[in-house]
Design brief:
The chain is α/β, with parallel strands linked by helices. The strands form seven sheets. A seven-stranded parallel beta sheet has the order 10-11-9-12-13-8-14, sandwiched between helices. It has a six-stranded parallel beta sheet with strand order 15-25-24-16-23-22, sandwiched between helices. A five-stranded antiparallel beta sheet has the order 2-1-4-3-5. Bound molecules: zinc ion (ZN) (2 copies). The site of one zinc ion has 7 residues, from loops.
């Protein structure tokens, strides 16, 4: 029997893990994969045994996306010996498949083989490794910890463009038409067209649209006119695709201004530099209040790393990848690669090649940037480390902070986490000696924290007047009069969050998910926010035909209507995932807000993060309770973070700022702490709550979601899995608490019934092993179309 200390040893030795796992057919397959393919695979493994005499051979250990366990050993035939290396793809036979499969080599070794013969590697796909040794180890660790086939992890790590060898794209280049050399024609043009054209002629080189507009400081419209008149030509050529690097003038002078460090920043930087110089792995948590200048500390720390020929990764929430963030890094470092989710596969390929070749010093990007193949990594920074977007919600369900921690340990380098509202996990690490705490309690230039006023919605006597209470309305009026700007947060999109019949009580719900549909005013449609099921909003009750159907609940669209009605003279913009669908729309609204053209910006949590506008004198939180009563142990933490973060958007200039928080729960500890900017007070109280139930960070949680089209068979399988997990627990003698199976808060999603099982333990290794064993022999009945997903350290309990 495996002892607990054996399991803990696994946690530090990723390589032995994967090998040990080989005899346990885990079953957490990619959800999209054809489920009925997997059992066959294991029935036919291992290959036909065949005894041979002792022989010295080179073998390669191969993992697959299609096979949850492994690695499997193969013989490397003589002619391929020079070519096969860890981190490369190879073609090999697997099971009884007729076609060879693509697998990833994770190790090669020369060994004397006695006993069963190995099958041969057929050929090598890549001419050089796509991942270095450390990344290969990281993959094996992720595969083990998150219980995902290593091949799936490799496929996540290496962009599809790189795997496919893609890398070129068409580029449109503008050149001047010969007739534009005739001054009489050029001088007859409107001034904007004339100056744009003269710029192109003077530049004497073909230019892309982006280069031309930026360098000539013009808009696209005169260029379009010139093209229509035949004065410029467009040539298309295929280029290695990349983003055109042009000096960005957006963001104004802020991007080039180099700040003098405050005393707190100086001390913080010294701690980070000491960690870098120590040459050891170490985690640091920079807890700095909003507006304390954390980014400048990151930049200086990275400069220190770069000075010694090394490089850094900066992870930011996707939404924070604003032009300002990019400009800030781009103007302080020579080689910056900015990664984001809207890149095409070939752009991604290009950046990946640049990064791997060593010409990049700093990679800035969302969670997947944690895998950037920098050859001489010296530091990993995670800004807003508490942000939920660092956890991936599809396989592999990794958390970038956990992966970054692992990568930093493998590389022997520091991991710098930063936040004004640290996650309980990171905070706890500072309390238990696993991370060093660095505090910045003051804003730069000693600006005061904004004053926060709570408005008790229960006491409200003007409820009929809509979403905005009297004190908030007064404050908005005053702010506009003072030439200030306003941010209003409402964390729900759509117009009305329920459509209900007042006569019979019927709620219009999604047939696929059983959840209320949200009414959207644009196009008068009702849609499900979980699966995008959409219908025209019914004009009468579908149940009783009553024609006075009522829109209840408040979404950002309704708030926008109300704000427009109250402040008709004022320019307003709404930012939520409905208005921000098109690439660039985010940037467009923010630059209009920065210029002062837009006076009131309202939206969902999108507006709560990272925005830095000195003229925002007022922040209003329309309903602070929206996330508070979710059936999730992180509800209070999320509420505290959201209110604190949005409150931090004001008072960033010399004119101060104030915050008004509307709430039905003014006595809730999360709301009170947020109103006093009291993170430590909140964290201490929250930790007591978590300790009662051994919730993270005091214990580990895992969640298994079972789903299927028929409720009864799905539940029956969930019960079977529970029995199997209980048996595994008993066999291991493990202290694991098992809860369920039960329908989760979202009991039906996209037409599938759902059940979940929660597992809790003080040791994540024990928890993981219980699941590994409990699911090892469990196969999902293919005929019932049942699937299950294992989510380690889930962030979402719905
Ligand atoms: Zn009705
Ligand atoms: Zn739905």
């Amino acid at each position: 029997m495996l002892t607990i200390s054996d399991l803990l040893a696994y946690d530090t030795s990723p390589f032995s893990i994967a090998h040990a796992a080989a005899d346990m057919p885990a079953a957490d397959m990619n959800e999209a994969k054809n489920e009925d393919e997997q059992p066959k695979l294991f029935e036919t493994e291992p290959p036909p045994w065949e005894l041979v005499d002792a022989e010295e051979i080179m073998s390669a250990s191969i993992v697959f996306a299609e096979a949850p366990h492994g690695p499997f050993d193969y013989k490397v035939p003589g002619p391929l010996r020079e070519h096969v290396q860890a981190g490369m793809r190879v073609h090999v036979p697997l099971g009884k498949r007729k076609q060879p499969l693509t697998g990833w080599c994770v190790e090669t070794k020369v060994q004397t083989l006695r006993g069963p013969a190995l099958r041969d590697v057929i050929d090598v796909v890549d001419s050089e490794p796509l991942c270095d040794a450390q990344l290969v180890q990281l993959v094996l660790w992720i595969s083990h910890y998150y219980q995902t086939p290593a091949g799936v992890v490799f496929d996540t790590l290496v962009p599809s463009g790189v795997r496919a060898g893609a890398g070129t794209r068409e580029q449109k280049l503008f050149t001047a038409d010969p007739q534009s050399l005739d001054d009489r024609i050029v001088d007859a043009l409107p001034p904007k067209q004339r100056s744009a054209l003269r710029f192109l002629i003077a530049a004497a080189k073909p230019m892309t649209l982006a280069q031309w507009t930026v360098e000539a400081e013009c808009t696209e419209s005169p260029i379009r006119q010139l093209h229509r008149k035949g004065l410029v030509r467009i040539q298309t050529r295929r280029v290695m695709s990349h983003e055109t690097h042009v000096a960005r003038r957006i963001g104004g002078d802020e991007s080039v201004k180099i700040e003098t460090l405050s005393d707190e920043q100086t001390v913080a930087l010294a701690s980070v530099v000491a960690a870098i110089d120590s040459g050891k792995a170490k985690t640091l948590l920079l807890h700095g209040v909003t507006g304390s200048g954390k980014t400048e500390v990151y930049i200086r720390a990275i400069q220190h790393v770069v000075r010694f020929g090394r490089s850094a990764i900066v992870l930011v929430p996707e939404i924070s990848l604003t032009p300002q963030t990019r400009a800030r890094f781009e103007c302080r470092f020579e080689g910056v690669a900015v990664l984001h989710s809207q890149m095409s596969p070939s752009e991604r390929h290009f950046q990946w090649q640049r990064i791997r070749s060593g010409e990049v010093q700093v990679v800035v990007g969302p969670r997947s940037a944690v895998f950037a193949p920098l050859p001489r990594l010296g530091l990993i920074v995670i800004d807003e480390e508490h942000d939920g977007s660092f956890k991936q919600d599809t396989q592999p369900r990794y958390h970038a902070r956990r992966v970054a921690h692992r990568r930093a340990n493998l590389a022997g380098i520091p991991l710098l986490l930063g936040s004004a509202t640290p996650s309980m996990e990171s905070w706890h690490a500072t309390r238990t000696g696993h991370a060093e705490l660095i505090r910045m309690d003051h804003r730069i230039a000693n600006r005061p924290m904004p004053n926060v006023q709570l408005v008790d919605l229960r006491q409200r006597d003007d409820r009929s007047r809509g979403a905005i209470s009297r004190p908030l309305a007064t404050a908005i009026t005053q702010t506009l009069r003072d030439d200030g700007q306003v941010i209003l947060l409402l964390n729900r999109r759509g117009f009305a969050t329920t459509i209900q019949c007042p006569a019979c009580g019927h709620v219009v719900a999604c047939p696929e998910c059983d959840l209320p549909l949200t009414h959207h005013r644009d196009g008068s449609k009702a849609l499900c926010h979980y699966c995008d099921y959409t219908i025209a909003t019914p004009p009468w009750c579908p149940a009783c035909r009553f024609d006075g159907i009522r829109y209840g609940g408040l979404g950002t669209q309704r708030l926008e209507v109300e704000v427009k009605a109250r402040f008709p003279e004022t320019e307003i913009a709404r930012m939520d995932s409905d208005t921000m669908r098109r690439p660039g729309s985010h940037q467009k609204v923010l630059s209009a807000f920065r210029s002062g053209e837009i006076r009131i910006l309202l939206g969902t949590q999108m507006i709560a993060k990272g925005l830095d506008f000195p003229n925002v004198l007022l922040v209003g939180v329309i309903n602070a309770d929206s996330a508070l009563h979710f059936p999730d142990f992180r509800a209070a933490e999320r509420t505290f973070q959201l209110v604190t973060q949005v409150a931090g958007r004001t008072g960033r200039g010399d004119r101060g700022g104030q915050v008004i928080v509307q709430t039905f729960s003014p006595d809730h500890p999360a709301i009170i702490a947020a109103s006093h900017h009291d993170f430590v007070g909140f964290a201490d109280g929250e930790m007591i709550q978590r300790r009662k139930f051994n919730y993270p960070p005091l214990g580990s949680v895992a969640r298994i979601i079972i789903r299927g089209p028929v409720e009864e068979t799905t539940e029956a399988f969930a019960i079977k899995m529970m029995d199997s997990l209980e048996a595994a627990r008993a066999k291991l003698g493990a202290e694991v608490r098992l809860l369920g199976p039960a329908p989760p808060p979202i009991a039906k999603l996209r037409g599938k019934f759902r059940f979940h099982i929660l597992l809790q333990s003080t040791s994540n290794a024990v928890l993981g092993e219980t699941i590994r064993r409990g699911t090892a022999t469990l196969t999902t009945p293919a005929k019932d179309e049942i699937q299950y997903v294992i989510d380690i350290d889930p962030m979402d309990m719905l």
